[in-house]
Amino acid sequence: MMHASMFPPARAGLVAIAVLLTALLCLSNNAGAQETEDGLPPIEVPADAAATLPELDLPGLTSYAPADRVAPLTGATAGELFLEAKLSEEGATVGNGLVWRIFDTQAGPDGTLPLIATAEGGAAQFALEPGSYLVHAAFGRASASARISIGQETRRQTMVLNAGGLKLDASLPDGSAVRRGKLAFDIFDMNADGERDLILPGVPPGKTVRLPAGTYHVVSRYGDVNANIRADLRVEPGKLTEAAIEHRAAQVTLNLVRSENGFPLADTAWSVIGASGEVLFEDVGAYPTMILASGEYTAIANHRQNIYQHNFQVVAGRDVTVRVMATDAAQ
Length: 331
Fold this sequence. Notes:
This protein is mostly beta strands and 331 residues long. 8% of the residues lie in helices and 47% in strands. It contains 2 helices and 21 strands. It has helices at 9-29, 49-52; strands at residues 79-86, 98-104, 115-121, 124-128, 131-139, 142-150, 155-160, 163-171, 183-190, 196-203, 208-212, 214-222, 227-235, 240-246, 249-257, 269-273, 279-284, 289-293, 295-303, 306-314, 320-325. A 4-stranded antiparallel sheet has the order 3-2-5-6, with no helix packed on it. Strands 10-9-12-13 form a 4-stranded antiparallel sheet, with no helix packed on it. Strand 19 and strand 20 form a beta hairpin. It is elongated and about 90 Å long.
């Protein structure tokens, strides 16, 4: 704040007159200006200002929801598409596990249909420009597709997948459980030529797989030697088919010992021969272990250039340790 006492009396009077004149000039200049809402005078833009602005090269903007995102469009011409799927005509709406894909119907430069948008889960909602689209719904290996047209109105589409589920397991003849870590299933489908195509290898027990309705050939593999069981199973639309396959097999462990209570000898090469003479299993070690179907076998041990053999039998559900004596020389 400036005090008049800082100036001599004559100069102080001159300063006061100058300040008063400046204020009157400002009021006179702003008397005809129209104030804006915030109390400030508007800024006038010259009429030829657009001609003086540089040209801007802006990138193009997409007018549809990008892939892997489901969001409404901001364009005023967007139409809403609601999608849901059923396993059968009479079934309930699928709540999860679906993969939706929306394609343009016009092929791109690479010859494929451009992917417009995707969604995962159950029912889905898309905002799309008016036009024709290809809608694809996938549920495991089951799928359905439809060509639809979208306008500016809201449309709802229900897809019927005509699919079901298959859940596999296995047991032993006495009802006891198998070693699930050594159990797997291969699922085959029949192709147009009448041959079986492997569509799902190594399916673990207890897992539900989603398949189109139809008949499938299943191979249950217990271990990786010869305990294999085959079966044809039917999958019905909207239903879960559960099957427990019975295996007549057991786990076998081989030992080469010098006496009845002797310690197994390491660095032993093993071969297991089936009843028809084929070699079913080969390994090196002191404790080779395998799953074998019930039947008769011959174990051959090769230790330090000496060969020993022993005949043994496998009974379903009875795990066994076969001890080959180092005195049982092969004939």
